[in-house]
Amino acid sequence: MTTYATIRPASPAVPPALLVLLAAACGPPPADEDSAAVAETDLTPARELVARSAAFHDPDGVWGNRSISMSWVGTDGEGGERVAVDLEFGADERDFALSGRYRGSSIEYETAADGWSATVDEVAQADLPEADRERMRLHREDGMFWRSYYGFLAGLPMKISDPGSHLDPDIIETAFMDREVHAVRVTYDPGTGGDTWYFYFDPATAQLVGCRFYHDESVNDGEYIVFEGLAEGGGLRLPRLRGWYMNADGRHLGTDEVGMIRVGR
User: Fold this and answer.
1) H or E segment at 183?
2) What does the pLDDT look like over 142-169, one tens digit per residue?
3) Contact 69, 261 (CB under 8 A)
4) pTM above 0.85, yes or no
5) Distance, CA of 112 to CA of 201 (rounded, Å)
6) DSSP state for residue 28 in the 8-state scheme
7) Based on the number of CB atoms within 10 Å of its own CB, is 124 exposed (0-12), middle (13-18) or buried (19 or more)?
8) Rounded to whole angstroms, how far apart are CA atoms 244 and 224?
9) Residue 197 in contact with residue 6, Cβ under 8 Å?
């Protein structure tokens, strides 16, 4: 399945808009009404919505501040197993680790400050044939593909406002999967993927209910993801089921499911 995989998010972080809200809530009061008005103006409707959504899914600000573990199972469009892995973010000296099965092979993968390492079916990545490296996507992004892939997907909506993102200021009132939603349009710098994304939120709760991305919006390429239910643990409430579909024809590409979530030790 085609994804945003070229996005290279920084280490997980609280969205800038949420930091603005937290600073306003915890810091000293504004010196005067004018400065308060400026602060309110800086927080566009789109950024405020993303911050509300982050507060819904991560009310305690866990993402990026504590180690997080979760299980992740993915099927293809016919329901066959595509991936079944355990993920760890910010554990020990590693900033990301993955272990389990992908495309019928076992895989152990981790990244740290000094680089990355992987084994496939107990063979170290340096000894893998090029065909296996490509099949397991270890040749992409200088070996950092899996970190950026799950670092972005698993961390939504907290990752929407990562460095390199540009949020259109206004909220779009539209429909997604036959329900009324509020949407935010986000473009990303070429160094962080260069795609155009739309994120869809429940108007009342700001829960993230789906997203859509385009490589070239004018030709309706790319895919959309439908989120259903919540996986909860350690204060996090992350989208549980994620169904992938083609924008062009609605073809179902597969479904991911988040299972266990554990925060800290």
Assistant:
1) strand 179-188
2) 999 999 999 999 999 999 999 999 999 9
3) yes
4) no
5) 34
6) P
7) exposed
8) 6
9) no
